[in-house]
Design a protein that fits this description.
With 305 residues, the protein is an all-alpha fold. It contains 16 helices and no strands. The protein is globular and about 65 Å long.
């Protein structure tokens, strides 16, 4: 048997602690907002911003924060986001809060981050609600309060925010802020997984693997692990690799097992490294070469996207 923990509890790597930093999140905001509003050149957006337009100020802040369409300058990004946030632009308030939370362009300040997340959440912004829930759940800028965190996650999840949906899945599975309920946890994990949220796909795979909250079904588990693996999730890559090696939920295929374990090992997964060594004793040199080529092809494709 090839080793891999595929438990029903949701993975500790969940983005409830929002491991992505503020710059990564600004890129996400830029992609989702900038393309729709003031999508002209830097000069055009700057002109609008200088006229005091709140959305243009936010767009300019995102451009300067990410380096997309303008030279990257975190201090200037913070300045522009503040101008927009002061005009009650909720996405700018969320972005400014992230800058304070992570100390990007400003001194790190959880109280300021909490203040801006609260303002954004009060305007009904789903990201702001999620981030405010994160602050409560992690005890940053405010005493830790899981129940209050869950309340804000729920508000955000009801607007189909995938990160918030998965936060609810995690908290229901652990009984934090709510009574432990694996069925409810699986329901929220499914919602987030359906939005292609990789951590949720891993969690849902674990639920199907162990039968927590859903009927045990290793074929379904493999399906969700593979979806997350295709997004580059190392835990999922190692898990689906072990499932291919064991013929568990999928037909046994050492080439595919080696491919996925190689990708996981490249991201620091030690269990995948051990599994690769075991696989090498069962594979021909040609099979190993084929698996390595597949792993390289996957890596090259994902670097281009």
């Amino acid at each position: 048997m090839f080793d891999r923990l595929a438990a029903g509890d949701y993975p500790a790597t969940v983005n409830i602690k929002r491991t992505k930093n503020s710059i990564v999140l600004l890129v996400i905001l830029a992609l989702s907002l900038h393309a729709q509003e003031h999508s002209g050149s830097y000069v055009e957006v700057l002109a609008k911003a200088e006229e005091g337009d709140a959305v243009a100020q936010r767009s300019l802040g995102l451009m300067r924060g990410t380096g997309q369409g303008a030279p990257k300058d975190l201090a200037e990004a913070t300045k522009r986001l503040r101008k927009s946030a002061d005009q009650n632009d909720a996405p700018a308030q969320s972005a400014l809060g992230m800058m304070y939370r992570d100390g990007q362009g400003v001194d790190k300040d959880d109280i300021q981050a909490l203040t801006w997340f609260r303002k954004s959440a009060s305007h009904g912004d789903a990201e702001g609600q999620y981030l405010l829930g994160y602050m409560y759940s992690d005890g940053r800028g405010v005493p830790r309060d899981y129940a209050e965190g869950v309340a804000w996650f729920r508000k955000s999840a009801e607007q189909q925010n995938a990160a918030a949906e998965y936060a609810l899945a995690l908290y229901y599975s652990q009984g934090k802020g709510v009574a432990k309920d694996y069925v409810e946890g699986a329901k929220w994990a499914q919602k987030a997984a359906d939005q292609n949220y990789a951590d949720a796909q891993v969690g849902l795979g674990g639920a199907y693997f162990s039968g927590r909250g859903v009927p045990k079904n290793h074929v379904e588990a493999a399906k969700w692990y593979r979806k997350a693996a295709e997004q580059g999730n190392a835990l999922a890559q190692g898990t689906i690799g072990a499932m291919f090696a064991n013929g568990d939920g999928v037909p046994r295929n050492y080439v595919r097992a080696y491919m996925w374990d190689s990708l996981a090992e490249a991201q620091g997964d030690r269990t995948a490294r051990d599994n690769i060594e075991s696989l090498e004793h069962r594979m021909t040199p040609q099979q190993i070469a084929e698996a390595q080529a597949l792993a390289q092809e996957f890596s090259n494709h994902n670097q281009l996207h």
